[in-house]
Amino acid sequence: MGKLGFISLLVAVLAVLFGERVYNLRKRLLATRELVKNHLPNCVLLKDLEHGTEDITILGDGLAFISAGLKYPGIPSSDEPGKIFVLDLKDSRMKPMELRMPRNFDLETFNPHGISLYTDPSDDAVYLFVVNHPHHKSQIEVFKFVEEELSLVHLKTIKHELLHSVNDIVAVGVDSFYATNDHYFENQFLKSYVEMLLCQPWGNVVYYSPTEVKEVSQGYYFANGINMSPDKRHIYVADVFDHTVHVFERKEDNALTRVKTVAVGSLVDNIEVDPETGDLWVGCHPNAWKLFFFDPNDPAGSEVIRIQNIHSDKPQVTQVYEDDGHVLIGSSVAATYGGKLLIGTVFHKALVCDLK
Ligand SMILES: [Ca+2]
Ligand SMILES: [Ca+2]
What we know:
Helices cover 12% and strands 43% of the residues. By secondary structure, the chain is mostly beta strands. It has two domains: 1-32; 33-354, Neuraminidase. A hairpin with a 4-residue loop joins strand 2 and strand 3. The radius of gyration is 20 Å and the shape is globular. The N and C termini lie far apart (69 Å). The structure holds calcium ion (2 copies). One calcium ion binds next to strand 2 and strand 6.
């Protein structure tokens, strides 16, 4: 074979490989799924939350904490720094309020992603753990919540080589947590393009405490939301590109043992757990191709799924809400309190509805 023939063959092989990878990615992102509407009653869009509310979690008294203004590679974002809001779901005005941030904290580069609350049983102090991406790096910020002043006191920044591409966390103590790494690489190009196209199970879950940091689970195509059962015995991890939620049992040494995997049929982002029923509420991307290749004329939709009786032989997976993107684009989280459903998005608005 001449040089030209060899080059032609090489180009043809690469084109076939590239085509196969794109086909695989389209399948993982449910690129051909049609978006429909399955709405709830009395929905209102929340004020001042127009540029992403990627993660939301609710305190026992109905105060929702909202991580706002995420900047994530490949996704539209505003130039404003990120913020933390609270919303009192007992107050019918549904008015989000921005939390006052401490002076000793770098607000300019604040880029909040997954969040988790921890209430210390010894004194009822409330701690907010925030995944932060200043300059697209990953670190965890630990704050103490001061309810009377609606402010946060910054306690510490946690960085570790195993916490290299963190998406979400679940706090299990005042300075310990589990975290998901959604990617293997830190480099933005490798992360956003090469890893996306290769789509290999290189994501993992890490346990962190001041005395021990270790990988506790691996093999995720894109590890995303993480949360815990009300009795604190089980950990739930979403694999967004595998359309599944994994259930683990926590061991004494904080290792995780796989119990089961539940198929969700949608791209699962963050997981919230109803403290009374133990139901999982998951914000999903019904067609994530439209999310990553954003076209305002053909927007990504939103979907909320509830998983009931997850520890039984037959967990029930039910769609509670879907929108075709004309109301809400790119839902990433859903949380309930007092008959209300609060839905947040990666870069769009936030919606609160009545549950039927
Ligand atoms: Ca979370
Ligand atoms: Ca997430």
